[in-house]
Write a structure and sequence with these properties.
Layout (H helix, E strand, L loop, with lengths): L2 E3 L3 E2 L14 E2 L8 E7 L5 E7 L2 E6 L4 E6 L5 E6 L5 E6 L4 E7 L4 E9 L5 E8 L5 E7 L5 E7 L5 E6 L6 E5 L21 E5 L6 E5 L6 E8 L4 E8 L10 E5 L4 E3 L5 H6 L7 E4 L4 E6 L4 E6 L4 E7 L3 E7 L2 E6 L4 E4 L6 E4 L4 E8 L1 E3 L1
């Protein structure tokens, strides 16, 4: 089947609670141009599903705040997950644009906003919090049989956030923030003095931890990551310690050798990142990793093969990032989608009417 990247689809609003209503429709000509999906907000602070061409994204209200998405490999289904402490993930059929199912985290659990499919598309893995214990879980859903719950396993730490499938197609890379939260206390962080973040490689079939690595400071919360085709994991930190400290904000794992390091960033540039990394995106064509630092209004580039800092680029409230050609597409929480190329100023592509939230997902739709 020929495939193309997402042009546009919109979601009808979801009802409160965990019930949904079908009726999502595709829009726009099938020109094969690059497109994406994301959560976002408008000027009235309504939660939105944003999608479509970079120059003219479409929007539709939804009841929950969406965090990140994943498309089923070789299939026509998109899963968009609510951010913590959300209990729902939306399954969308990209052939007709309909919302076909709403997944539940289950009793005593909530999602962390991220999910990834197995290489064959048969299983969906989502990070979750076991509320009573505060320990992380991986929820496994059977994508072949209407996403029925299959099993739940420990994730390897507390506060599992973004996860990616490694190039061996059988190992998950999981960023653990190490922060204990509870829905009864909203988003208050309950264990900053004792948090234990880590980067875990996990076999989802056996539940066995294959590798586990810890940042150099116990308050460097690992939240987001990306994986290169040759097994380099770049993970971004969010520092929860004293504001006058400027610890490293990136980790790099060579999974083949098990070597974990933290790329050096010069003191002046490190301070500009404001102790907070959001999205991480790797571009294999350029050999660069881009990370967004919204609190510092910066983008940072790294040579991920060498683990070397390349430089900073001022950017307003950078959120999501995706590789595109030899550069990147980056969204702004203040509005707009931008093309970012090494050595050039960001170019506004469109979407300036929306506040883009968290992450960007590139999609292919069937022709």
């Amino acid at each position: 089947m020929q495939r193309r990247t997402l042009l546009a689809w919109t979601a009808m609003g979801l009802l409160s609670g965990c019930a949904g209503r079908s009726g999502m429709t595709l829009a726009g000509a099938r020109t094969g141009q690059f497109g994406l999906a994301s959560g976002g907000r408008n000027a009235s602070a309504d939660n939105l599903l944003l999608s479509g061409l970079l120059s003219s994204p479409q929007s539709q209200p939804v009841s929950g705040r969406l965090h990140a998405g994943a498309q089923r490999p070789g299939g026509d289904e998109l899963v968009m997950v609510e951010r913590r402490p959300g209990c729902r993930a939306l399954v969308i059929d990209l052939r007709n644009g309909q919302l076909v199912q709403v997944l539940e985290a289950g009793p005593g659990l909530h999602f962390y906003g991220h999910a990834v499919f197995s290489a064959d598309g048969r299983e969906l893995y989502a990070t979750a919090n076991h509320i009573d214990s505060g320990q992380g879980r991986i929820l496994v859903f059977d994508a072949v049989h209407r996403y029925r719950p299959l099993r739940i396993m420990p994730s390897g730490g507390m506060d599992p956030h973004e996860l990616r499938l490694m190039p061996d197609k059988q190992t998950l890379a999981i960023a653990h923030g190490g922060i204990r939260t509870h829905p009864d206390f909203a988003r208050i962080k309950l264990n900053l003095a004792s948090m234990q973040p880590n980067l875990t490689l996990l076999d989802p079939e056996t539940g066995q931890v294959v590798q586990q690595h810890h940042p150099s400071h116990h308050q460097l919360s690992c939240h987001h990551l990306d994986v290169s085709p040759d097994g380099i994991v770049m993970v971004g930190y969010q520092f929860e310690g004293p504001s006058w400290l400027s610890p490293p904000l990136m980790g790099r794992l060579d999974a083949a050798t098990g070597q974990f390091s933290e790329p050096h960033v010069p003191e002046v540039e490190l301070a500009l990142l404001a102790n907070y990394i959001a999205s991480v995106a790797i571009n294999p064509l350029s050999g660069l990793a881009l990370v967004t630092a919204p609190k510092g209004n910066q983008l940072a580039l790294f040579d991920y093969h060498a683990g070397r800092f390349v430089g900073l680029l001022p950017f307003p409230d950078g959120g999501g990032a995706l590789p595109s050609a030899r550069g990147f597409v980056v969204s702004s929480g203040l509005g707009g989608l931008y093309r970012v190329l090494p050595g050039a100023q960001p170019e506004l592509l469109g979407g300036e009417d929306f506040c883009w939230d968290n992450h960007l997902t590139a999609l292919d739709l069937p022709i």
